[in-house]
């Protein structure tokens, strides 16, 4: 699977988790801009409990990204064919745990306190993974940079090239391949958001289980194939 196709699938998962998670726990978890702004607002207003919640969410996102880096670099040293499968498989396990625990505990205070940091950790894990895979070309859990790049490429595409005064001036040329990738990723994030909102709204926490299944399907050929290859070499 190419990094672009993987990015498109992960954008769908992120959109579904973010929008559906909001319905489940009342908080968006895929991007840090809003969370950091909320920390600043609540600090200014003296709502220190909410400040603590935001700080924990931000730390969880950073921890998820750090965990991805550790798993990928460990994989590079031990089995390069599975280096990116490890963090995606971990994301699948954590989404599965979120669905099972959420369904079992419902509105239990203990789970609700854990739910937002868990989803933030998952999103940090995913965003760092696709960032490493794509060489920092693709992000999947937030859209500000990608929507900005779409605007830049559309502006370049619409730029008027003809100039009688400067016939030899370099032409401004849009990167249509990049624009296509960005539009697909943003579109899939939106589609995932719609599906996630409907799924979590009608089914509750258990809807995270099919999302986890998609990630398991992505990683199983690498993990199972790598394990089979290792057994074959030993034999």
Topology:
Elements: H1 3-25, H2 32-45, H3 48-78, H4 85-105, H5 109-133, H6 144-158, H7 176-203, H8 208-234
Helix pairs in contact: 1-5, 1-7, 1-8, 2-3, 3-5, 4-5, 4-8, 6-7
Describe this protein's structure.
By secondary structure, the chain is mainly α. 78% of the residues lie in helices and 0% in strands. The chain is built from 8 helices and no strands. The two termini are 29 Å apart.
Order of helices and strands: HHHHHHHH
Mean pLDDT: 88
Provide the low-confidence segments as ranges. 227-235
Q: What count of helical segments does DSSP give?
A: 8
Strand content: under 5%
Short description:
By secondary structure, the chain is mainly α. It has helices spanning 3-25, 32-45, 48-78, 85-105, 109-133, 144-158, 176-203, 208-234.
Task: Give a quick set of tags describing it.
single chain, 235 residues, mainly alpha
């Amino acid at each position: 699977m190419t990094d672009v196709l993987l990015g498109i699938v992960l954008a769908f998962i992120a959109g579904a988790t973010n929008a559906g998670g909001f319905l489940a726990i009342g908080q968006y978890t895929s991007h840090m801009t809003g969370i950091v702004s909320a920390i600043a607002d609540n600090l200014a207003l003296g709502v220190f409990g909410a400040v603590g919640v935001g700080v924990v969410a931000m730390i969880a996102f950073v921890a998820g990204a750090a965990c991805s880096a550790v798993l990928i670099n460990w994989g590079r040293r031990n089995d390069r064919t599975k280096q990116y499968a490890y963090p995606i498989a971990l994301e699948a396990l954590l989404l599965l745990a979120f669905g099972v625990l959420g369904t079992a505990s419902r509105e239990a205070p203990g789970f609700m306190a854990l739910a937002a940091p868990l989803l933030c950790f998952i999103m940090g894990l995913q965003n760092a993974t696709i960032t490493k895979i794509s060489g920092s070309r693709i992000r999947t859990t937030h859209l500000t940079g990608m929507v900005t790049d779409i605007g830049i490429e559309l502006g370049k595409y619409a730029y008027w090239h003809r100039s009688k005064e400067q016939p030899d001036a370099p032409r401004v040329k849009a990167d249509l391949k990049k624009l296509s990738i960005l539009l697909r990723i943003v579109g899939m994030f939106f589609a995932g958001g719609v599906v996630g909102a409907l799924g979590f709204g009608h089914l509750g926490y258990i809807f995270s289980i099919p999302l986890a299944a998609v990630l398991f399907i992505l990683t199983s050929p690498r993990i199972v194939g790598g394990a089979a290859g290792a057994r074959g070499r030993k034999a």
